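Before a computer can learn anything about folding, someone has to put a protein's shape into writing. The outcome of that step, for a single protein, is printed below:
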Amino acid sequence: MEAGSSGCSARTVAACVIGGILLGASVLAVHLAGPVSIPSLPPVDALRRRFRRRRRRPVRVYMDGCFDMMHYGHCNALRQARALGDELIVGVISDEEIKANKGPPVTPLHERMIMVRAVKWVDDVIPDAPYAITEDFMNKLFNEYNIDYIIHGDDPCLLPDGTDAYALAKKAGRYKQIKRTEGVSTTDIVGRMLLCVRERSFSDAHNHSSLQRQFSSGHGQKIDDGGSESGTRVSHFLPTSRRIVQFSNSRGPGPDSRIVYIDGAFDLFHAGHVEFLRLARGLGDFLLVGIHTDQTISSTRGRHRPIMNLHERSLSVLACRYVDEVIIGAPWDVSKDMITTFNISLVVHGTIAENMDFMQDDSNPYAVPKAMGIYHRLESPLDITTSTIIRRIVANHEAYQNRNEKKEASEKKYYESKSFVNGE
């Protein structure tokens, strides 16, 4: 029995070893020969994850423009363009190209570059971009900048010969369209300033209403200027809560954040504003900006100001990457209650402003933060104010008047024939 049992055990072990060898050989053969049957497909979610891993390069979109006297309409266009991709590259057209195609720009290239770079939705900027998308430049965008799509608004962009500036991009199937922001354009804003200049040249006997009342009511007037009647469009901007939400950061300061506060008119938002806000933001963790009311600005700077109304100015400031939050209609005086409510750590003012007379008044709006030791006077990096922009218009009044007359005709045609475009 023992001998038989030993023999049986030996045979069993031998059978197991041989079976293991055969099984291993079979597995190896299958592995080397490949599958002999159609495998089942992986789940849809697994395919999606695998596709995302393979597609590592972000979608890059390109938008160009003059961005002259940059306003919230420009910013909203850039916001919409950015939503169509992962990265937004912006071409800023050269001064020479603008002059050749539209007339003299109000703000030079280096100021326009500062403005575009400061918009929170912009990832990179190309200076001296051409006005028309030529075949060579389009290939450069596709091959060197890895651009997937070229973006423009629904309003036509025509060259002096009447052809479409984006015809080649459309033909290549790499063009996408966004919705134009209603109620504002550089032409509108220049028109408001020209109206201001013309109105000042009339005596009080004409009894013209102030620009402030015209802008806030949305009604312009036709002025007989040297025998020719020229209507100037004024703001038709209709503010909505959704637009403000779209421009907002939707986040507040942390519990230990150092909150910096700066207030002002921020009329005709310009490079001087942007550079000052950049420096102010560097003094803390959260930049809160107070936007003064139209009535406050009119009472301190004259009845022809502001050029842009409160909501227009608020959106321009909100679009700036250095700004975390704004107070729409901030009080003139910075009170103790306000400092406590917003937990303000530092109140900042610049060295260059429209009117610095208040610093000598008994009713200094910064008296409280000064007494608390939290007031800081910050050196303004650029010598530019809203009046600087207005003086540029006045100095070249005739050229801008001619430019606007041409542009107003095309804008009138756009508004008369426009149809609804789905977009944000």
In short: Residues 2-33 form the longest helix (32 residues). Residues 53 and 277 are 39 Å apart (CA to CA). Residues 201-234 have pLDDT under 50 and may be disordered. The chain has 17 helices and twelve strands.
